Every structure is written in C-alpha cells, then in structure tokens.
Amino acid sequence: MPGLCGLVSSRGDLAVLDVLPMLNALRFGHATHEESHQEKGLSLGCIHLGRNGQQAIYASRHAIVVAYGYITQPIMSLGVDGDQHRGIGTAAAHHIHDRYLECGEAAVGELSGAFAFSLWDRRNRTLLLASDHLGLRPVYYADHDHVLRFASEVKALLVDVDLPRRLDRAAIADFLWYGYVMGDKTYFQDIRLLPPASVLRWQDGEWTIRGYWDLRYPDRYPQRSNSWYDRLIHDALHASVRQMVRPNLRYGLSLSGGLDSRWIAIFLSKYRPDSPTFTFGTHDSDDTPIAQRVADELGLTNEFVELPATYIRDHGQAIAYLSDGMYNLFEADEFPLSTRMGEDVDVAVGGMLGDILFGHEMNPISALLGRRSVIRYWLWRTKGSRLPPRLMARVFGSDQYQELNAMALHSLEQSVSSAPSDQGFQVVHYVNIRQRQRRYINVAQLLKLAYVDIYHPIADSQVVHASLQLPPKQMMVEGAYRRSMGRFYPDMAAIPWTFVLMPPTVSMPTVLAKKAAQLTLGRGLARTPLGSHPFVRPRRYFADHTGWSRGPLRLFIEETLLSDEMEAIGVFDPRGFRVAIQDHMEGRLDLGPLLGGALALAFWARFFYLPTIPCAPVGMGNLDPPNS
C-alpha cells in the first residue's frame, strides 16, 4: 500500500542499490504508482495511489525528499494553486525540502499532520528519516551488512534474503496479551519501528535517533470557565477540518454513532456538503440508525455498508498481509468499507483519537491514580482483551505462559516508565496515545490506504495541544467534549451516543450509572426479557465475532489455526490449543479475545516467517484488491 522505502550504504562496492524489490513488496490494491531515485550508495522510492496528479518526490541539486502521508503547512506556504498543480505529496515534499534548507533538522518540529519522510542531503551525504508527532505513519528500519534499509511496511525489508529472521517473542507476547505490539518492536528482532516524533540521522555508515517532541502535561491547570474550555475544543476541531479541505478532492466520512465522527460531520457539512458518509456493520448495530440520523440532520447522504459474517474469511489474508500480521483480524471490521469508499472518494476522513484525547479514560478511578498504580489499573482495564490466566496456561502451556506473561508485563512497565509525568491519569493518557492508539487503532486506518487516502483532523497538533490543556474535571468521561457539542450544536447533541445510548448532554453521574448498569445488570439479564430494557441493554456492536466463529467461519478458523504455520511459530501448546479451539466451537468456553490474533499470526508465518522472501496471499497477488 502507499508508503516509502529505501537503502543507503557507505560501502564502495555497493555503488548500485536496487529499490525495485522493495517497491514491489509495497504494491497492493490501487497503490500501484511508483517513483524512485538512485545514485551512488543510495536508492529511494515510494508507492502511492497516483490520484489528482499526486507525486511524492521532490529533488534539487541540494537535497531529495520522499514524503508519505500529509502535512498541513503546505496549504499555507504554497497556497491552493501549489496543491492543485503539484499534487498533495509533491507540495509536502517541496515544503519539507525548502524548510530543511532554511533551518536544518529543526524544520521537522514545526510540521503538523500524519507523515513520514526520507531526506537525502547531497551536500554532506546525510540521510534523515522522520516520523510525525504521534507516529501515525510508520517507518521500519534494519541495519545489516553495512546497509541501512527502511520502509513503511516490514515486508519491504524482508526482500533482503540475508536479513536475519530472529523471532522476537516479546513482540508476540505483546500482541497476544494486549492486541498490539508495544514500543519499537516487530516480530523480528532485527527490524525496528522508528519512534513517534523522531529523526534517524545516517552518515558514513553510522546512525543515531533523536526525539524532537513529546506530549507535555501541565503541573498545574489554571482555573477557567466551562465556556472557555467549550470554545477551546470547538475552535480546535473546527480549524482542523477547515484546514483539511482542498479543492478538487472528493471527501467521504466513515460515520459511526460516536462523537468523533459526529464532530467532523458537523464541520464537513459546512465546507463540503456534497461529501458522502458511510456506515458499516450489521442492520441491528446501534451505530446504524444513529449515524443515519446524524447524516439526515446535517443534510449529508449516508450509505450503509453491511459487514458480512464471512468477511474475515474473504479478507483475512489481505488484512494480515497489509498489516504485517500485527493486527487482530477480529478488530478489522472497517476494512471491507475501504474498497467501497475508494470507488467514490479520494480521501476517507475518520474520527480517530478524539475520545482518548478528551477523556474517554478519565473516570473516578483513573483520576485518583498514582504512578505506581497505573500498571495494575491498565491490566484491569484491558483484561477483556485477554483470556483468563488458567485458560492461557492451557493454550500456551504452563511454562511458556509464565514466560510470555513476564515479557508482556515488562513491555507495559517500559511504556509506563517512559511517560513524562508522575500523575497517574496523565500516565494512562500518555501510554494510550503512544502505544494503543499508534499501534492498534491507527493500523485499522492504515489498511484503507491500499484503496483510498486517509485524513484524521482530530490528530492534528492544534487539537492535541488543546486536549492537553484540559484538567481532570473537564476530561471526566469526556465531559467538556460532550458539553461543547451541546453548547454550539444542541441538535447534534440531542442525538444518542453509542457509548451509553443516551444523548451526550446527560450528566456525568448519569453516564457512570448507565455504563455500570450496562456492564452488570445488562450482561446478567442479557437472555431475559428485562435485558432489553433501555437502561441496562449493552451496546450492540458492528459484528458478532463469537457467533460467526462458531458458524460460517468455523471451518476456516479450524483449518487455519490447526496448521503447520501455527506450530512453526512455537508459542502455542499444540494439544492444549487444539482442545481449547474445540471447546470454543462447542460453546464450552470463549476464545474470542485470542482467535483473531492467532489467525493474524498464522497468516504472518505463511507470508513472512516461513518463506525466504515475502509471499503474497494466494489468488490475489500484490496488485489485486481482495474480493469485495
């Protein structure tokens, strides 16, 4: 899918470095347009969708820049005409090039957006690799045999048959325990991910990584009125959407029943009222009618895209291939929507990050946490993503379970220790953004890039900066975020919100009481007539993965998980895993949290771990989209 790649070496006998195999590994879906540059000891390249004259490389006699993703500054510095004539990528690459020549590496810190770039300074033969503030556009790298290789996907590095394939069991432990890999790890020890807000600088075979920015939390919060915070949130969100809109681009919004996409829909309807919205899921999902009501109120069209029960069977290999096996297939519900949006729009807009920035994890418990209590709190909050310890010991084997559990705990401890704060709620916020949002939530959005460009206004630096000014009282269960909508757009705030199936303007005690009732009475009464009572009924989500896994997906899951690929990874106890799968299928236990991750690992082994070079999914190849 769209991304960058390259190789650089100081060895004189490697005068020509071929980037073409790496580019071929990135090709997938509609991402087939290729650009490259080669000179002695260096080869750079990129793959993109090629829409609207898009280009991603800008070169001069001083420097060469390959830009991936988007930055917001080109709109201001080059103007609308620059974007129309050069394409978004070229405008970004040109802007980075000019700012670098003016102020050197310090230019990276002034950029905003979701981007990564490589820059070759021809004057001193120096390579820079940079990631955006939140790390939303990945850059993986490997230094082997005097050659530094880098790419936006792991698979592009694996085309080097001599690169070691040493398994990183700690990364697999992270994935199976938390649903995502933490830190800079990948499944291979010799391949690492460039951290957020970082610059890798290479010269003469030596390289270093430095950070240029970090989330910084106030020691004290000034006293402000509710109206001040409401205006702060409104203005930041408004500006981020206004800044996003370009002429000659077709925008489409993935609209759910939550608040993030609703905020974007409000402003998108002002600037591009012709933009369609799309809602995916099943007909009985709570998001479906709520999203339709939001679209109707704003005068936007809304198309419902039904999520088939077999989508994991139909798209699972493609999802695992595109994500390098680092995304749980049971969480990829939005992927089938990607091909549909790519038919009608140039840019898919999403509401990622808003709930976390503005207080989804701020509750009466987290507000009082000390730093030492964060790990215990995090394990409690995420226990639903893991199997119970006794069942884990059965699936992995007792000794191996203890080893993997210790590795996963160590990763969490490292993430917590990196937070620049001693206040527990700020540490939770930091780890969520740096780890979970970047390496889990964001991956679902990256998967769309094979078919359509993506943009996430709420991830812009101005919105992040606004969120960091909110004290705990304003963030409590997204209080200010909800209240701001009620103040400025009361009609939108009158529509229920899927978190508690009530309007977002309800009081904080009401939200807490309703959620507690859903999690306790709602689950306990689920199979009784009282379970459908509006105050206790839990939210109906997009998919029924447990039911589907025991029905139309059963044969697919059994054939995939009871395969040679799973045994080759060596993390599951063969007998214990086989019996657990059988018990799941018969309804005696629920492996739901584990099945989607195990499926991803099985396909990862098939495509990347067992072959000498990456192997594309059978029947679709790198150039073909998955069956729609």
Describe the structure.
Strands 2-3-1-9-8-10 form a 6-stranded antiparallel sheet, covered by helices on one side. Among the domains are: 3-165 and 186-211, 4-Layer Sandwich (Glutamine Phosphoribosylpyrophosphate, subunit 1, domain 1); 226-360 and 422-493, 3-Layer(aba) Sandwich (Rossmann fold), CATH 3.40.50. The chain is built from 24 helices and 17 strands. Helix 6 (260-271) runs parallel beside helix 7. It is of the alpha+beta class and 628 residues long. Strand 6 (113-121) and strand 7 (126-131) form a beta hairpin.
SSE blueprint and pairings:
Elements: E1 3-9, H1 20-26, E2 33-39, E3 42-48, E4 57-59, E5 63-71, H2 73-77, H3 79-103, E6 113-121, E7 126-131, E8 140-144, E9 147-151, H4 169-178, E10 192-193, E11 198-203, E12 206-211, H5 226-244, E13 251-254, H6 260-271, E14 277-281, H7 287-298, E15 302-306, H8 311-322, H9 335-344, E16 347-349, H10 354-357, H11 374-381, H12 389-396, H13 398-417, H14 424-446, E17 453-455, H15 461-467, H16 472-475, H17 479-488, H18 490-493, H19 508-524, H20 545-550, H21 554-561, H22 564-569, H23 574-585, H24 592-609
Parallel strand pairs: 13-14, 13-16, 14-15, 16-17
Antiparallel strand pairs: 1-3, 1-9, 2-3, 4-5, 5-6, 6-7, 7-11, 8-9, 8-10, 11-12
